[in-house]
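In line with agreed milestones, work has continued on tokenised descriptions of protein folds. One protein thus recorded appears below exactly as we store it:

>
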Amino acid sequence: MKFEYLIFVVIKVLIITLLVGKTSGIEHHYGYKCAKYGTQCDPLHQQACCETYNECKYVVNLFLCVRKGILGRYCKNDEDCAYVRHAKCSEDKQCICRLNSIRFNETTCIPLLGEFCSKNERCAANNSVCVNNECQCKNGFEHINDQCLPKIIGSRCECDANCDEIKFSKCSEDKICICISNTIAINSVLCSPLLDVHCSTNEECRVNNSVCIDNKCQCKSNYKSYSDDNKCELPFIGMPCPKDSSCDYLMDHSICSKEKRCQCAPDYYQLGDSICTLFNTRCNDNKLCSKNFICVNNECQCKPNYVNRGLKCLPTHLNAACTNHTDCNEIRFAMCSARNRCICGNNYIAINEKICATAIGGFCFFDQECADINSMCIDHYCQCKLTALLSANNQCVPIRLGKPCKRHEDCEPKTNLRCSANNICVCNFHHVAVNESYCAPIIEGFCSMDEDCQFSEFHCVNNKCQCKPNFTAISSRQCIENNLATSCFDALDCSDPWHAACSTNNKCICKINHLAINNATCYPILDGYCWNNNQCIIRHSVCSDFQCTCKSDFVAISDNLCIPNKVSHSL
């Protein structure tokens, strides 16, 4: 019985094989089948695809017979070139290699150094390999100008011949390839001559702004070098100077200041960026006048917004050009910035284009020195007045809530305040205090846009703040997701029926003048029901006659804020 079953299985397999051969390929000798276009193929067989213009390629987790990708072939879009890795369709409608790769043959693009590659994919540069999906030089080679060159400098050697691949190199006594004297190792494959060293081409002179002149590396025209370091610099007044003789060598009639900066010598003034010349008031052209001077009636005078101080014209306006702090001396509390502009110093702010005043926290002697109109000088530091609060952007905002008033306009209605029956500024209806200067709308509070509704999960609908869709209001200023709200049939289903109620949509919510501490607990705010002081969560409030109210020496300016009576009287 088992033998008969085995015969049945073999016959079934043969029938399925014949059917597959008819639909997906053509059978050859020894049972081998090639695959037609678009069907699965075996890349190990000699003729994986039946047609010679197709090839067996790995596409989306399997091998398929696809059209051979050929660079230079006509294409409509990038997809037509997708079978050549790293290829795209050009503006001329031809398959070409992308910028990060080069053409290897008509069917292959290979990535350059530093570009993305697949595992074991060939990279363009000799002596490079694909490591962590990036073409990199092999060990012992360095990436130089899109090539992988052997690291010679620092490698072991037996004689100078071992280092010959690198010009200006030799084998040291320690048997290591090094650069010869008066040259410098730019990297492990290049030695370059320093200044005044023999050269053949400009490219060999690697010191910035140097060229090969008379077979020696020298500074370009108008550039000069220090004798003890290899730099070619364009000299300028104000440049750093390591020693006194440096400046005069670079620029005539200049000296090195105490601050180690080049400046014009006494009795000389600056003309342009790098010339020091004797002072001359006569002129017929602006070019004959020094920096910040102009020629007026054949005489050098300070240009507008500058004043003459000795041999210099100093600016009287902020944002003027400067080279050091003394250039800004005519503007009190100003300094020269890293961008070489006169700006207000630390702890000072500009109140106009000419004046710097002390910021909050800055040192002062008089109230007039403090920049903020709501600040004053207290203990020699600018601080907010008692009638103002320090905001997040370091400004003093006047306290508006609790301020005496006679009409609504006295309370700056734009900040959502109104004048109460007790003639003090309080939060408008359906608003609560954010701080002592500003009130924000709650549910049903007026709004013009979503940003006006500042509480979480609020938005503006028909000029009123409401909970966002799929959210439930559990208090006048709290919205939670519907599925988080506790379901109920009546108030007894809620954890605290004294402070909670069952809403019309059968959700436990806080009663009026209560706030949710969590999804199951509500506590009273001002005018909320209570029977002991601990239940009243608003600062400076107590329980009186079963209602949370402000203490006797405080006054309510919102259902969430009590301020001292003396503050409201002093405002």
